[in-house]
Amino acid sequence: MYAGFWDQIKNAFNQSGNSLYKILAINLLVYFILLVSWVFLSLAGQEALYNAMRSYLMMPAAPEYFITQPWTIFTYMFTHDRFFHILFNMLFLYWFGLLVMEYLGSRKLANLYILGGITGGLFYMVVYNIAPLFSDHVDRSLMLGASAGVYAIVVAAATLSPNTSFRLLLLGNVKIKYIAIFYVLVAFANSAGSNAGGELAHLGGAALGYIYVVQLRNGRDLGIPVQVVGQFFEKLFSRKSKVKVTYRKKSYEYKSEPLSKSRAGEMTSQEEIDRILDKIAEKGYDSLSKDEKRKLFEFSNKA
User: Residue 169, Cα to own-chain centre: how many angstroms?
Assistant: First the structure.
């Protein structure tokens, strides 16, 4: 299991349809880079330089600071600086992300994570600027972490399949709807505490996760703008295969062979699988035709 997981992480950007592992890989890579930077800069007596560098990745609460570094609405959700922070975020992202991918597909999982992070970041900024409790330290408040995106995925998974159970240490089998409710209540209870920024982002992400699935069932995908931008960058950075042309004295006639049924099954596109998964999310598995069920079965076996 662990070998397979790390193989997926190492090859995340060499494969399509695996946004879960791409998100995990980016979070782990940024954490490792920050960790190495912190060690070397601290040893050199330049910890202030490290803090300044890290702040350019963190989401500021003050709008005037955010305007000068708007990229932080994206970078903060891939940034961690504490081991247990990233550990628990990545565990929950992996466990619940697998379920979301099973129901909605790879692209919609990425949509959920990004939209949850953006919603959490904006909710954090708005509440910090309107709540009197935070008025004295808005200017120096910064936030980092994947929690908002992770909460979006946790709540989305619980909305999609509330009665699915996870086996928890000491508690046994627990339905994921109760896990999601518990974590949302904890975030709400701590939203006025020492980590208020992070907890507010949790609530924003959780709300987005629920709304996203409800709207998807009503036939509206809130993640289409994110998906369009993601596809643009995929095409921009995709590697074009290099074709080596050689010349030989002999010439050969190329004849195309008709595809066999098995090869035709392999040609099922990710877009078609996403369409089938959308139909499951909207109408249930029983609504699929025999051909759609066959394609989904063949694709899952191939994956």
Answer: 25
Q: State which amino acid sits at residue 214.
A: V
- In contact, 31 and 86? CB cutoff 8 Å: yes
Tens digits of per-residue pLDDT, 2-43?
557 777 887 877 877 789 999 999 999 999 999 999 999 999
CA 199 to the chain's CA centroid: 18
DSSP 6-24: HHHHHTGGGSSS-HHHHHH
Tokens of 301: 């076996």
Q: Tell me which residue of 141, 115, 98 sits closest to 222, measured CA to CA.
A: 115
Give the burial class of 279: count Cβ atoms within 10 A of its Cβ; 0-12 exposed, 13-18 middle, 19 or more buried: middle
Give all domains of the chain, ordered by start, each with its CATH number: 19-231 (1.20.1540.10), 260-302 (no CATH)
In angstroms, what is the C-alpha Rg of the chain? Answer: 22
Q: Give CB contacts under 8 A, 24+ apart, made by 132-139.
A: 133/192, 133/196, 134/61, 134/196, 138/61, 138/62, 139/61, 139/62, 139/65
